[in-house]
């Protein structure tokens, strides 16, 4: 007998096939804290370990990947979007010093194509394994008529925990602290509406081979978001008392994301000459006749994360981060707020948070 639901464009059997394709990858993220398996109504975590904390604080974050998914759909490549999703979620949680424990995901699509959904979820699961986070549940929803058959969107949420005495925040920041920059892998998952406009105005297709890149344009733009959490969890274990706060450079750009994690009493001059933006930023800016400085509030420009540390430990922490696989360098030093902090050039408020005064100075390394 034909399932009446199928006549409306919803294929529940395809959903079951997708689960079978992704089950092994999801199960591989499960550790001793996970109760139950894949397919339950709720993901469950044994929280008994929290009794070992003096004062456990739970941290949570939720996010998506934005219009970067349009590029994945354009070139039919879906195995990297999952890492983008994980990075955008868990790397917000580590900002407060918390260790992410588990994650869930949500995928909405116009037509459920099992192999495509499995590619996305395998990417999510693979990234979760890299940062030791359990993928304990998710939902795939078919929305015919709302989304085109090949269209989809993804979102996710995660929960982490931190000992209250070890929470990172603006209150720990001191004048003289050094701000370390951590290299981005590329565009990560922000500013893609502008990226897509530049490509369209240039008359290019994402499948095009352009002389500026060694792979197709779409593959270059889909370079997955770097995962910082795994490295930073180790650094927090080794240097927790020497770290003041952190910032994930995402939507809103460099100055805004740094300002919101600093107290109002301090300022920071970010030294542009301390790093060279990735080639993808320079190429896109050139295509659109932008100066890189014009894009500092839209893209990360190669600065994906920042860590504020005590001066005496800065060199050691920077070397350790680099040793663990992420290039780190000195961005600037925390100073007392200058009297002209309200003048143009400084950013001191973002996402409704009044914070430190931050500006970028000098010219980027070439």
TrEMBL record:
Pfam family name, one: AIRS_C
Gene Ontology CC terms, in alphabetical order: cytosol
One BP annotation, GO: 'de novo' IMP biosynthetic process
NCBIfam families recorded: purM (TIGR00878)
Location in or out of the cell: Cytoplasm
Chain ranges of the PurM-like N-terminal domain: 57-162
Protein name, per record: Phosphoribosylformylglycinamidine cyclo-ligase
Organism: Aquiluna borgnonia
EC number: 6.3.3.1
Molecular function via GO: ATP binding; phosphoribosylamine-glycine ligase activity; phosphoribosylformylglycinamidine cyclo-ligase activity
Ranges for domain PurM-like C-terminal: 174-336
Keywords on record: ATP-binding, Cytoplasm, Ligase, Nucleotide-binding, Purine biosynthesis
PANTHER family: TRIFUNCTIONAL PURINE BIOSYNTHETIC PROTEIN ADENOSINE-3, TRIFUNCTIONAL PURINE BIOSYNTHETIC PROTEIN ADENOSINE-3-RELATED
UniProt similarity note: Belongs to the AIR synthase family.
Catalytic activity: 2-formamido-N(1)-(5-O-phospho-beta-D-ribosyl)acetamidine + ATP = 5-amino-1-(5-phospho-beta-D-ribosyl)imidazole + ADP + phosphate + H(+)
Pathway where this protein functions: Purine metabolism; IMP biosynthesis via de novo pathway; 5-amino-1-(5-phospho-D-ribosyl)imidazole from N(2)-formyl-N(1)-(5-phospho-D-ribosyl)glycinamide: step 2/2
């Amino acid at each position: 007998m034909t399932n009446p639901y199928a006549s409306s464009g919803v294929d529940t059997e395809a959903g079951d096939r997708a689960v079978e394709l992704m089950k092994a990858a999801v199960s591989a993220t499960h550790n001793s804290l996970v109760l139950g398996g894949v397919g339950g109504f709720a993901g469950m975590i044994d929280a008994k370990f929290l009794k070992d904390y003096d004062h456990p604080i739970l941290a949570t974050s939720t996010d998506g990947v934005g219009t970067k998914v349009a590029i994945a759909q354009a070139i039919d490549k879906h195995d990297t979007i999952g890492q983008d999703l994980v990075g955008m979620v868990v790397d917000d949680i580590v900002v407060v010093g918390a260790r992410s424990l588990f994650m869930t995901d949500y995928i909405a699509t116009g037509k459920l194509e099992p192999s495509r959904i499995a590619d996305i979820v395998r990417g999510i699961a693979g990234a979760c394994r890299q940062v030791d986070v359990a993928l304990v549940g998710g939902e795939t929803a078919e929305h015919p008529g709302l989304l085109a058959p090949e269209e989809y969107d993804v979102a996710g949420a995660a929960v982490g925990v931190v000992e209250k005495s070890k929470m990172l925040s603006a209150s720990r920041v001191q004048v003289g602290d050094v701000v370390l920059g951590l290299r981005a892998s590329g565009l990560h998952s922000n500013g893609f509406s502008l990226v897509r406009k530049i490509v369209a105005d240039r008359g290019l297709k994402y499948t095009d081979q352009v002389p500026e890149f060694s792979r197709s344009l779409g593959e270059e733009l889909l370079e997955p978001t770097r995962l910082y959490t795994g490295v930073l969890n180790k650094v927090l274990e080794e240097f927790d008392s020497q770290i003041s706060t952190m910032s994930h450079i995402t939507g809103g750009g460099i100055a805004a994301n740094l300002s919101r994690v600093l107290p109002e009493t301090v300022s920071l001059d970010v030294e542009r000459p301390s790093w060279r933006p990735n080639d993808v930023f320079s190429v896109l800016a050139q295509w659109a006749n932008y100066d890189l400085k014009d894009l500092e509030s839209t893209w990360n420009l190669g600065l994906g994360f920042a860590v504020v540390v005590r001066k005496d430990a800065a060199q050691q922490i920077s070397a350790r981060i680099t040793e663990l696989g992420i290039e780190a360098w000195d961005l600037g030093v925390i100073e007392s707020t200058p009297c002209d902090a309200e003048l143009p050039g400084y950013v001191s408020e973002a996402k409704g948070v009044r914070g430190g005064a931050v500006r970028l100075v000098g010219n980027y390394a070439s």
